[in-house]
Structures are given as structure tokens and as C-alpha cells.
Design goal:
Layout lengths: L1 E11 L2 E5 L9 E4 L2 H21 L14 E6 L4
Antiparallel strand pairs: 1-2, 1-4, 2-3
């Protein structure tokens, strides 16, 4: 399955923070030394969360639209 979520990316004194408001309560918040690194980490976290939800047949949380957010696409490889 393919999922698209809104994410927020912020620069904080030399590092970057990336978070997904729709999945933040499940741990979708991370950081990195660069924007790209933070987004890569967030993608990995979202993939793990979504695979867990699919495996347990739980309802997948819907996206929360955010102002000035970016979009991230996660493909779990399942149908």
C-alpha cells in the first residue's frame, strides 16, 4: 500500500527535526544533522509503524493537513 502524509521539518541550532503530526503519538518524530537525514529517518519510522498497523490489521490513521508542511510517501510493498 502507498500512504502519503504531511510532515513538518524544522531547523534547530545546527540539527533538523522531522515529525508527522498524524503519526506522532506512535513515535513519528526524529532528527538528523541534515534535512535529508531527518526525512530519511522519519520515512523509516513511518514504514515500521505502518507495517505494524497492517500486520495487526489496525485502522491506518488519516493524514493531518498542516500549514507549510511537506509530503512524504511511504510504500509498504503490500496490497
Amino acid at each position: 500500500m502507498e500512504y502519503i502524509y504531511s510532515v513538518l521539518i524544522d531547523k534547530n541550532s545546527g540539527s533538523w527535526t522531522a515529525r508527522c503530526p498524524a503519526m506522532e503519538e506512535f513515535g513519528a518524530r526524529t532528527g538528523g544533522e541534515t534535512k535529508e537525514e531527518a526525512l530519511t529517518h522519519l520515512h523509516s519510522i513511518l514504514l515500521m509503524i505502518l507495517l505494524d498497523f497492517e500486520e495487526k490489521e489496525l485502522a491506518i490513521p488519516t493524514d493531518k493537513m498542516v500549514l507549510n508542511g511537506a509530503k512524504i510517501t511511504i510504500n509498504t510493498g503490500t496490497e
